[in-house]
Specification:
Distance between the termini: 22 Å
Structural class: alpha+beta
Mean pLDDT: 88
Low-confidence stretches: 1-8, 10-30, 659-699
Number of strands: 15
Number of helices: 16
Length: 699
C-alpha cells in the first residue's frame, strides 16, 4: 500500500506540473516563428517534419516548415511583423534561429532565411525589426535591409525586384520584373514533384489510419499492417524530398549554405537507405499478417477457440511490429529536418529520440515473436488434447500482443518527441520526454506481465502432467489477469501517446484535461499490474491446499481467485474508458466525452463493488483456514457459502464495457454481448450496466 501511495503522489505531482505547464498563459508567447495568416486554393504544408498537415488560418509555423502551393496562395506573418505572400506554383521553406553573441555583454541576433526552391513571393520586412533576413534560392542569396518587393526562381534563374530598401546579393540575381511560375514549369521541377509526392503519401497514411479506426477484430490487424507500410513509404518519400532539396542547395554560392546542404544530404541518404529496408521488411510482415488472419479464420470454422485467439493475437502483434518499425523510419527522417534547421542541440535531441524509438521497436519485435511462440504452444497443447494449457498459452499470446501494442505506442511517442525537438519549445520537448519516460515504464510493465504469463503456462502444463487440475485451472486464471494487466498498461501508453502527439503537433487547447485523463489511465494500469501479485499469491494458496489435501481451503482460494479476476477485468475497463475519453478530449468530441464519462462513472462503481468483494473473499480464505485448523468444518462451510454467494453475485453483473474501438460506436451503438469462458467460471461482458446490491460477508 505504501508503494502505491508513493506512486500516486508522484502522479499527482506530475499532474500539477503539467497543468501549470499547459495552461493557456504558459504558451501564450512561445508558439513558433510565424503563422499562416491566410490561404486559398491548393496549399500543402510540412510542419515539424510531417507532411499532410491541414492548412488553417492562424496556424503556427515553425523553423523548417515548408509551404507548397499548386493553384493556391498563402500569406505568412512572422512574429516581428515581417510578412510574405506565396504565389501559385511555389515551393517555400522558412527558417529562423537566435544566436547569442558576446562574452560579457550578451546580445541576441535573430537570423531568418526564406528559402524559395521554385516559385514567387512578395515580401515586406517588419517595421523596426532587427532580424537579419535572407531570401535564398538554389542559385542565389539576397540579404535584405529593410526591404520590400518580390523574389522568385524557376530553379535556375533568380529574380529580385525591390520596391523599397536594399539587399546584398550573392550569385546571379536578375533585377526587375519577377515572372510568375506557370503550372507546367512547376510540375517539371523535380522538387515540386517530390514535395507533392510526399504530401500525397501523407494523405494516403491519414486515409489508411481512418480505415484502421473503423476496422474491428481481424480486419484491424490487416488495416494496421497496411498503415505501417504506408507510413514507411511516406517516410521514404519525405526523405527523398529532403535529399533533393539539399542537393539543389549545394549549388548555392553561399559556402555555409553549401556545407549545411551537404550535411542534410548525407543524413537524408542514410535515412532513405534505412527507410527502404523498413519498407521491404514491413511488406514481408504484411504477408505474415494475412497468413495469420487466414489461420484464425480457419480455426474459427473448426471451432478451435484457443488457436483462433492465438492467431488473432499474433496477427495483431506482427502488425504492431511493423508499426514500430515505421515509427523508426519516420524518426530518422526527422533527423534530416533537424540538420536542415542547423541547431546542434536540436539535432542531438532528435538523435537521442531516434535511439529510444529504436529500442521501443526492438521490444515490440520481441513481443511479437513471443506472441508467435505462445501460439505454437497453443497448437502443441491442442494436438495433445491439453485444453487447459491451450487456454493458458492463448492468454499468454494475447498478453504478449498487448505488450507489442504498448511498445509500438512508445515508438510513436518517440516520433512525437522527435517532432517536439524541431519546435524550439523546450517546455514542450521536456513534457514529451517525461511522457516517453512514463510510457516506457508502463510498456515495461506489460513486458513483465508477459513474463508472468509464460511462467503461468509452464505451471499449467506441469500441473496437468501431475493430474492437478485445480492448480492448473487457477494458473489459467492468472494468465487472464496478466492479459488484463498488459491491456491496461497498453491502453494507458496509448492515452499518453495520443496526448503527446497532440502536444507535439501544437494542439494544446485541451491538453491539460487530456493529460489528467492519461494520468488516471496510468494509475489504473498500475493497479491492474499490482493485481498480478495478488493473483500469484492466490494460485500459490490453491497449489498448497491441493498438496495438503484441504478441499475446503482449495474451494475458498478458488472463489477468492474468481473475485480477483473480475476485479482485474473491471480495472482494465477503467483504463480503457479513460484512454478513450482522453482521445475524445484531444479531438474535441464533446458528445463522446459525455457518453464515456457516464459509462466511466458506472464502471468505477462496479469496480468498487468488485474490490470490496475481493477483499472480503481473501479474508474468507483466512477464516476457512482457521476453521479447518480448529476442526470446525461447519463454520468453514458457512463462510464458504457466504463467499460463494458474494463472488457469484459480482460475476452475474454484466461488466460495463468500453470494447467499442471507435468513439462513434461508443455513442451510437451497443456491442453485442460476448462470453469469455474459463475452466471454472463463465463471465459475460456487455455494454449494458445494471445496478445490484452485493452481499458483504464475514463481518
Amino acid at each position: 500500500m505504501k508503494k502505491t501511495n508513493n506512486y500516486l503522489c508522484v502522479m499527482l505531482a506530475f499532474w500539477v506540473i503539467s497543468c501549470i505547464l499547459f495552461s493557456g498563459s504558459a504558451f501564450a508567447a512561445v508558439q513558433g516563428i510565424a503563422k499562416l495568416d491566410s490561404f486559398s486554393g491548393g496549399v500543402m504544408i510540412k510542419s515539424l517534419g510531417k507532411w499532410g498537415v491541414e492548412p488553417k488560418a492562424e496556424m503556427i509555423l515553425y523553423s523548417g516548415d515548408k509551404i507548397v502551393t499548386t493553384d493556391g496562395y498563402a500569406k505568412v506573418l512572422f512574429n516581428d511583423g515581417a510578412q510574405f505572400g506565396i504565389q501559385t506554383n511555389s515551393n517555400i521553406r522558412i527558417f529562423e534561429k537566435t544566436e547569442i553573441r558576446g562574452a560579457i555583454f550578451k546580445k541576441e541576433i535573430r537570423k531568418r532565411d526564406i528559402q524559395v526552391m521554385i516559385g514567387k513571393i512578395a515580401f515586406k520586412s517588419g517595421v523596426g525589426s532587427k532580424t537579419k533576413t535572407r531570401l535564398v534560392s538554389p542559385t542565389a542569396v539576397a540579404a535584405l535591409r529593410g526591404a520590400a518587393g518580390e523574389f522568385g526562381t524557376d530553379g535556375e534563374n533568380t529574380n529580385l525586384n525591390l520596391s523599397e530598401g536594399k539587399s546584398d546579393n550573392q550569385g546571379t540575381m536578375l533585377k526587375g520584373n519577377v515572372p510568375d511560375i506557370t503550372r507546367d514549369q512547376a510540375m517539371r521541377a523535380p522538387i515540386q514533384q517530390a514535395s507533392i509526392a510526399a504530401a500525397e503519401k501523407a494523405r494516403i497514411v491519414d486515409g489508411s489510419l481512418k480505415n484502421q479506426q473503423k476496422a474491428k477484430g481481424l480486419n484491424n490487424a490487416v488495416a494496421g499492417a497496411q498503415v505501417a507500410l504506408n507510413r514507411a513509404e511516406a517516410a521514404l518519400k519525405s526523405g527523398e524530398e529532403s535529399q533533393l532539396e539539399a542537393q539543389m542547395l549545394q549549388k548555392n554560392p553561399d559556402v555555409q549554405i553549401q556545407k549545411q546542404a551537404g550535411e542534410v544530404k548525407k543524413q537524408a541518404e542514410k535515412s532513405i537507405s534505412q527507410a527502404k529496408i523498413a519498407v521491404k521488411e514491413i511488406a514481408q510482415k504484411q504477408i505474415k499478417v494475412d497468413a495469420l488472419v487466414q489461420k484464425a479464420v480457419e480455426a474459427e470454422k473448426s471451432g478451435n477457440d484457443s488457436v483462433k485467439k492465438a492467431a488473432e493475437s499474433s496477427a495483431a502483434a506482427v502488425a504492431k511490429s511493423g508499426e514500430a518499425q515505421a515509427a523508426v523510419a519516420e524518426a530518422r527522417i526527422i533527423v534530416s529536418e533537424a540538420v536542415a534547421i542547423g541547431d546542434t542541440a536540436t539535432v542531438q535531441q532528435a538523435e537521442r529520440s531516434v535511439e529510444r524509438t529504436l529500442i521501443a521497436a526492438q521490444k515490440t519485435d520481441t513481443a511479437a515473436k513471443n506472441t508467435e511462440e505462445s501460439a505454437l504452444k497453443v497448437q502443441a497443447a491442442v494436438d495433445k488434447g491439453d485444453t487447459l494449457t491451450a487456454q493458458a498459452a492463448a492468454n499468454a499470446s494475447e498478453t504478449h500482443a498487448r505488450s507489442a501494442e504498448a511498445n509500438a505506442d512508445v515508438a510513436n511517442t518517440g516520433v512525437s518527441l522527435c517532432r517536439a525537438s524541431l519546435s524550439g519549445d523546450r517546455r514542450v520537448e521536456q513534457f514529451l520526454a517525461d511522457s516517453m519516460n512514463r510510457a516506457e515504464n508502463m510498456a515495461n510493465q506489460a513486458i513483465l506481465a508477459g513474463d508472468k504469463a509464460n511462467q503461468s503456462v509452464d505451471k499449467v502444463e506441469g500441473a496437468v502432467q501431475k493430474g492437478d487440475t485445480q492448480t492448473a485451472q487457477a494458473a489459467v486464471k492468472l494468465t487472464e489477469v496478466t492479459m488484463r494487466a498488459a491491456e491496461a498498461n497498453s491502453l494507458a501508453v496509448k492515452a499518453t501517446a495520443d496526448v503527446g502527439a497532440a502536444v507535439a503537433a501544437g494542439n494544446i487547447e485541451r491538453s491539460g484535461e487530456a493529460i489528467q485523463l492519461a494520468q488516471r489511465a496510468e494509475a489504473a494500469s498500475q493497479k491492474a499490474t499490482e493485481i498480478i501479485g495478488i493473483t500469484e499469491s492466490a494460485v500459490q494458496k490453491v497449489e498448497s491446499a491441493v498438496a495438503a489435501g484441504n478441499t475446503l481451503i482449495v474451494q475458498a482460494a478458488v472463489q477468492a481467485l474468481d473475485a480477483v479476476v473480475v476485479t482485474a477485468e473491471r480495472q482494465t475497463v477503467i483504463a480503457q474508458l479513460l484512454a478513450l475519453v482522453a482521445k475524445a478530449t484531444n479531438d474535441g468530441q464533446t458528445q463522446v466525452i459525455a457518453a464515456a464519462q457516464e459509462t466511466l462513472q458506472k464502471a468505477v462503481e462496479q469496480l468498487a463493488v468488485a474490490e470490496a468483494v475481493s477483499q472480503k473473499a481473501e479474508e474468507a480464505v483466512i477464516q476457512v483456514e482457521t476453521a479447518v485448523a480448529s476442526g470446525d468444518t461447519a463454520a468453514a462451510q458457512a463462510v464458504l457459502e457466504q463467499q460463494k454467494i458474494a463472488v457469484e453475485e459480482i460475476q452475474s453483473v454484466p461488466t460495463t464495457s468500453a470494447s467499442a474501438t471507435t468513439t462513434e460506436s461508443l455513442v451510437t451503438t451497443t456491442q453485442a454481448p460476448t462470453t469469455t469462458t474459463t475452466t471454472t467460471t463463465t463471465t459475460t461482458s456487455t455494454t449494458t450496466t445494471s445496478t445490484t446490491t452485493t452481499t458483504v460477508y464475514g463481518g
